[in-house]
Write a structure and sequence with these properties.
- The structure is a single chain.
- The chain has 3 domains: 146 residues, 2-Layer Sandwich (Gyrase A, domain 2); 78 residues, Alpha-Beta Plaits, CATH 3.30.70.1400; 82 residues, Elongation Factor Tu (Ef-tu), domain 3.
- 21% of the residues lie in helices and 32% in strands.
- The chain has 9 helices and 20 strands.
- Strand 7 and strand 8 form a beta hairpin.
- Helix 2 packs across helix 7.
Length: 371
């Protein structure tokens, strides 16, 4: 029986030296936590956290028809991008299901970077190649590149110590390809202002050979500002508090962007793209299920796969993400339910079946931690 070898990021030995609890995720052996998920979560909300997210995939699309191809590939309107701008979007299959959610970065009219989920790298690459009928070249640089995310109120001041680029001038969902002279004498560094935690922060894309030096420098300069290394455990509770979807849980090949509340990144008026016809039918279907957020009103945590019920005890949906909110000190979650105002309106009550018990929850619109 053939087994798939689990990969390691270039920072694996740093994680083990910090006594991180490691586990497989997206084909990589990744740190779940270093001290505790709650401590790392609060560090990001109150100061800063440093994440190794080098397991993410980076594809480059280059060529005279790069713009046209990406317009056909994804749901959002790539023509709205300009040099140094990024956007969030999804790739859909012909049935309108989500192949993956991703970020698209524009360097110039003929060069773009796609950042895809680690668990979908091979799947996405094969999908993109299969629908590509434009004059472009595709490059998978996932193994050559590393990625760090520094998130939290202190992230700006900590990262600023490593670069002469004025970070305050990098607007949200914008990025800068840093000259070597402006970032630790390193070539190929990209500083991006996005995030997956609900806090201000930056991503640092770099050559895999340079990431150790950047990791060490950030931990050194951030020590006095409350910076902690943070694992995937805190990353999950942070993104759930903020109401961000996780592929494989809240988004799948069978989930449409309209069901997932992602109609704002779905632009059928821009012209033809993969899945457009199916999405127009889905949009018009009022019975399509909807993704909701909820807060548990009593003791208990809703986990992925738990049934969602109405007052009569009838099953109306299923939980896709759930955890304990370190900020609210309550259970929170997201899940898909029937498209009925009684089940989708904030403030209304639902029930979640937790093992043999039915616990009460209140429908709420994220971000949860700001309520």
């Amino acid at each position: 029986m053939e087994t798939t070898k689990v990969k390691r990021t270039p920072l694996y030995t740093s994680h083990t030296a910090l006594n991180a609890r490691m586990m497989p995720f997206g084909g990589y052996d990744m740190p779940v936590q270093y001290t505790s998920i709650v401590a790392e979560h609060h560090a990001v909300r109150e100061a800063a956290g440093l994440f190794d997210v080098s397991h993410m995939g980076e594809f480059f699309v280059e060529g005279p028809e790069a713009l046209d191809f990406l317009q056909y590939l994804v749901s959002n309107d790539i023509s709205k991008l300009y040099d140094g701008k990024a956007l969030y979007t999804v790739m859909c299959n012909e049935s309108g299901g989500i192949v993956d959610d991703l970020l698209v970065y524009r360097f110039n009219e003929h060069k773009y970077m796609l950042v895809v989920n680690a668990s979908n790298i091979e799947k996405d690459w094969n999908w993109i190649a299969s629908v590509c009928n434009h004059d472009v070249k595709l490059y998978d640089r996932s193994d050559e590149m590393a990625l760090l995310a520094i998130q939290g109120p202190s992230s700006h001041s900590i990262l600023q110590k490593l670069t002469g680029i004025p970070l305050s001038e990098i607007k949200y969902y914008h990025f800068v390809a840093a000259p070597a002279s402006s970032f630790m004498n390193m070539d190929g560094v990209i500083l991006s202002h996005t995030g997956y935690t609900g806090e201000p922060g930056f991503e640092i894309y770099c050559n895999a050979s340079d990431v150790q030096a950047i990791w060490d420098a950030l931990l050194k300069h951030g020590k006095g500002e409350g910076l902690l290394p943070a694992g995937l455990g805190a990353r999950d509770t942070l993104r759930l508090e903020a109401g961000y979807c996780l592929y494989g849980n809240d988004l799948t090949d069978e989930t449409s962007p309209y069901s997932a509340g992602l109609g704002w990144i779905t632009k059928p008026d821009k012209g033809d793209f993969v899945g457009r016809d199916a999405l127009l039918k889905i949009k018009a279907n009022t019975s399509e299920r909807k993704l909701i957020g909820f807060i548990i009103e009593e003791k208990g945590i809703a986990r992925s796969g738990y049934p969602i019920l109405n007052d009569e005890g009838d099953e109306i949906g299923i939980v896709t993400s759930g955890s304990q909110s370190p900020i609210l000190k309550k259970g929170i979650g997201m899940g898909y339910v029937k498209n009925d105002p009684a089940y989708t309106t904030p403030g209304h009550k639902i029930l979640v079946s937790v093992r043999s018990k039915r616990i009460e929850a209140r429908i709420a619109k994220p971000p949860f931690h700001k309520q």
